């Protein structure tokens, strides 16, 4: 099989909930990064075999195949297809895996992978519509009786709630299992903001970000979530919403955000013939699953699986991006992998930069590739915890 390489990576700024990007339709936001991807790489949109787009809340403005709609909004030829997938927070990372498999197997020459989530306009949980009257079923509730019965009685599983698996509760369970204190989580969160602020001040994000022009003509050019005025004292004053005696707060959780990102994937041979420059080779791509009640631990076995397949040790990876869904996730991952903390999320993570669910995987890959290029790092590893207790891991090699 041929190698799969990334020949372009761009992202929008990440907007706060209710921030500047709240005025932009998610299809239009997706189209903006598609247009910029073509402009910056020089790829011909007519040669794109497929667009694989991640999105979690596929309802309302994000319904009816947002990936295909983004192609049309970008003005790309009508001959370019598009599809939309949901692997929860890892949706656009999974889109990259599918794109790599398609080009490596010869089923496609050039595939665009990415994703979007406008969490302001389409709030998380919008696709769940229980009956308001008790007589109309609405769209119904997820999971069904058999899943609820399987986990009924498991600590952390609320069998009779509309959504019985709760990520925040999972984060609390992880903190308890790994002995993580409130102080450790707050210190980690503060460091995420400090690293992101330093990177933003140094202009480290500028090359990867696509400015977004708003309907009123204003332009958004930078991530909005970085809190430069936060402190350990402020973080210590926040409530613990998932457990009265818990340790996880909004400050040690990822931010609800709006954003999109896109990656172009092909083979080295096709790139050479068509004047595209490979940035990195997709060395290894895996998916794994773990306890759906703890939910957020799968990056640990997924990392072990990826390293085995890659024939690499964690010490050979120069940078790792572990999505900061909640601070206990990367901290537990560090404890289990014995990885170097200095190599983890060096430009901050979702606690500071935000987490536009369906777009985060591609956003993180875009940021990691830029970090690798700036620092001359050979191998980078990205992992995302995902609803249902899953995780993707992607190892890329700089070219």
Automatic annotation (TrEMBL):
Residues 5-266 form the Thiolase N-terminal domain. Pfam families: Thiolase_C, Thiolase_N. The keyword Isomerase does not apply. SUPFAM superfamilies: Thiolase-like. InterPro entries: Thiolase (IPR002155), Thiolase-like (IPR016039), Thiolase_C (IPR020617), Thiolase_CS (IPR020613), Thiolase_N (IPR020616). GO terms for molecular function: acyltransferase activity. PROSITE patterns: THIOLASE_2. It comes from the Bacteria. Residues 277-397 form the Thiolase C-terminal domain. The keyword rRNA-binding does not apply. Residues 126-146 are annotated as: Disordered. Keywords: Acyltransferase, Transferase. Residues 126-138 have a biased composition (Polar residues). NCBIfam families: AcCoA-C-Actrans (TIGR01930). Belongs to the thiolase-like superfamily. Thiolase family. This is Acetyl-CoA acyltransferase. It comes from Plantactinospora endophytica.
């Amino acid at each position: 099989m041929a190698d799969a390489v990334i020949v372009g990576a761009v992202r929008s700024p990440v907007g706060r909930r209710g921030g500047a990007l709240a005025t932009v339709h998610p299809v239009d936001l997706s189209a903006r990064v598609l247009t910029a991807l073509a402009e910056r790489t020089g790829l011909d949109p007519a040669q794109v075999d497929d667009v694989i787009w991640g999105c979690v809340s596929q309802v309302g403005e994000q319904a009816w195949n947002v990936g295909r709609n983004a192609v049309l909004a970008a003005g790309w030829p009508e001959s370019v297809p598009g599809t939309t997938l949901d692997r929860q927070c890892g949706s656009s990372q999974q889109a990259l895996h599918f794109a790599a498999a398609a080009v490596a197997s010869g089923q496609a020459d050039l595939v665009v992978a990415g994703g979007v989530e406008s969490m302001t306009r389409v709030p998380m949980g919008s696709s769940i519509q229980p009956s308001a009257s008790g007589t109309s079923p609405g769209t119904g509730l997820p999971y069904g009786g058999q899943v609820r019965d399987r986990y009924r009685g498991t600590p952390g599983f609320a069998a009779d709630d509309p959504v019985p698996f709760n990520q925040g509760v999972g984060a609390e369970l992880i903190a308890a299992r790994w002995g993580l204190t409130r102080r450790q989580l707050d210190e980690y969160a503060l460091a995420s903001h400090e690293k992101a602020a330093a990177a933003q001040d140094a202009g480290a994000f500028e090359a990867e970000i696509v400015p977004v022009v708003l309907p009123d003509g204003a332009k958004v050019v930078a991530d909005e979530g970085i809190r430069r005025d936060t402190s350990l004292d402020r973080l210590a004053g926040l409530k613990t919403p998932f457990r009265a005696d818990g340790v996880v707060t909004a400050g040690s959780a990822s931010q609800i955000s709006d954003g999109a990102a896109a990656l172009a994937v092909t083979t080295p041979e096709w790139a050479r013939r068509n004047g595209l420059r490979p940035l990195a080779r997709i060395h290894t791509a895996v998916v794994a699953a773990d306890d759906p009640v703890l939910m957020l631990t799968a990056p640990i076995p997924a990392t072990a699986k990826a390293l085995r397949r890659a024939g690499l040790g964690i010490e050979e990876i120069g940078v790792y991006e572990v999505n900061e869904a909640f601070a206990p996730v990367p901290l537990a991952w560090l404890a289990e992998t014995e990885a170097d903390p200095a190599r983890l999320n060096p430009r901050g993570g979702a606690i500071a930069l935000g987490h536009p669910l369906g777009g985060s995987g591609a956003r993180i890959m875009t940021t990691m590739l830029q970090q690798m290029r700036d620092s001359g790092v050979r191998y980078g590893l990205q992992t995302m915890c995902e609803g249902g207790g899953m995780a993707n891991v992607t190892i890329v090699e700089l070219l």
